[in-house]
Automatic annotation (TrEMBL):
Organism: Ketogulonicigenium vulgare (strain WSH-001)
Gene: pqqE
Transmembrane segment boundaries: none
Lineage, broadest ranks: Bacteria, Pseudomonadati, Pseudomonadota, Alphaproteobacteria, Rhodobacterales
The protein's name: PqqA peptide cyclase
GO biological process: pyrroloquinoline quinone biosynthetic process
Reactions performed catalytically: [PQQ precursor protein] + S-adenosyl-L-methionine = E-Y cross-linked-[PQQ precursor protein] + 5'-deoxyadenosine + L-methionine + H(+)
Cofactor(s) required, per the database record: [4Fe-4S] cluster
């Protein structure tokens, strides 16, 4: 077996440096007609009344372009619930940002897709929860989503836009992965993202209902590798394995506060989409500060930048400028300490325990979800 701690290639000297932010995930709203139990939104969903206005989002995009940002990903919740989406896409184009729409696809119309294309949208990512109507409805908690998603995919191509299909996979929908891959081909996608659930926020609450078995993980890897070879030149497949079964952590967000940031519906600037799960951090808002000030000066942005903050074993590890110690949100979720080594790493003292947890939960008989919705968010507070 390969040594997971063998260094391949040259490490980037990223100690305490950070560059221009290249891409921004703009979470326009937490409203969404679907209720996926693995949603990456925080448990405490933002009410519509707290969302930034059209003018505030446009100002944020102008500031992004001034700062050097190249891409904006319009996301949510479901971004198409915002009636001003066309205006926002138009403003992104006007200030020179490449724009991508990440959508469940269940609220789109053909006319709207063409209006978005006219406003300058370049790319659409449509999520898929299962390959059959039954699985799709069960996972998303929404009836008859699949035909609507297919329509959105069709209109994306008709409008001349690039299409990616996003599949978040877990124990319950993995048996349908081969058909999900075929759906992506049938819908005409150029890319399919197969991402195992990351366990924080809603997914952490539903971990017992989602955790795949080790055998499923091995099957998934084989299915993805076979499809990649068979569909070369037709469909590109990106694949993210589940952290709990990994030996080394992922390089989360390319390093905390290095190249990416996320804006929450109410305007908080976050180093990643799950950062608000670290309840001890305070995030600055675009309603009070400029983006440039926040990017350079925010305590939350600076606290895990570079490598000086790292404890052992990361501090003296040859990988520290490659993976930056893994995911801070996962460290907080599992070690109750956001500065700990990500327990996904085999060098973490907690690694064995989380591997055992994964194995135990993967064979649990618990299949019911706590659906992600405002009622369950209120029940949690
Ligand atoms: S993961 Fe599901 S519930 Fe969450 S925003 Fe996406 S479609 Fe909506
Ligand atoms: S998480 Fe820390 S200890 Fe593990 S490989 Fe990365 S830098 Fe090394």
């Amino acid at each position: 077996m390969d040594d997971p701690f063998r260094i391949v290639g040259k490490a980037v000297d990223a100690r305490n440096t950070y560059g221009l932010p290249l891409a921004v995930l703009a979470e326009l709203t937490h409203r969404c007609p679907l209720q996926c139990g693995y949603c990456s939104n925080p448990i405490q969903l933002e009410q519509a009344s707290r969302e930034m206005t059209t003018e505030q989002w446009c100002s944020a995009m102008t500031q992004m372009a001034d700062l050097g940002v190249l891409q904006i990903h319009f996301s949510g919740g479901e971004p198409t619930v915002r009636k001003d989406l066309e205006q926002l896409v138009q403003h992104a184009s006007d200030v020179g940002l490449y724009s991508n729409l990440i959508t469940s696809g269940v609220m789109m119309t053909r006319d709207r897709m063409f209006r978005l294309a006219d406003a300058g949208l370049s790319h659409v990512q449509v999520s898929i929860q299962g390959a059959t109507g039954q699985m799709s409805d069960l996972i998303g908690g929404f009836k008859n989503a699949l035909p609507k998603k297919h329509d959105t995919a069709t209109w994306t191509l008709e409008a001349g836009l690039a299409l990616t299909v996003n599949a978040v996979v877990h124990r319950q929908n993995l048996p349908e992965l081969p058909q999900i891959i075929e759906k992506a081909v049938e819908w005409g996608a150029a890319r399919l993202e197969v991402a195992n659930v990351q366990y924080y926020g809603w997914a952490l609450k539903n971990r017992q209902a989602l955790m795949p078995t080790f055998a499923q993980l091995e099957d998934t890897t084989n299915i993805v590798n076979e499809a990649r070879a068979r569909l070369k030149g037709i469909l590109e497949i990106d694949y993210v394995i589940p952290d709990y079964y990994a030996a080394r952590p992922k390089q989360c967000m390319g390093g905390w506060g290095r190249q990416f940031f996320n804006i929450s519906p109410s305007g908080h600037v976050l180093p990643c989409h799950a950062a608000e799960t670290i309840t001890e951090l305070r995030f600055d808002s675009l309603k009070e500060r400029t983006l440039e000030w926040i990017w350079h000066n925010s305590d939350a942005m600076n606290c895990f930048r570079g490598t000086d903050w790292m404890p052992e074993p990361c501090k003296s590890c040859a990988f520290k400028e490659i993976d930056f110690g893994g995911c801070r949100c996962q460290a907080y979720a599992l070690a109750k300490d956001a500065s700990a080594t990500d327990p996904a790493c085999a060098k973490s003292p907690l690694h064995e325990a989380i591997f055992r947890t994964a194995m135990a939960e993967s064979i649990a008989s618990e299949d019911d979800f706590i659906y992600r919705n405002f009622a369950n968010a209120r029940a949690d507070s």
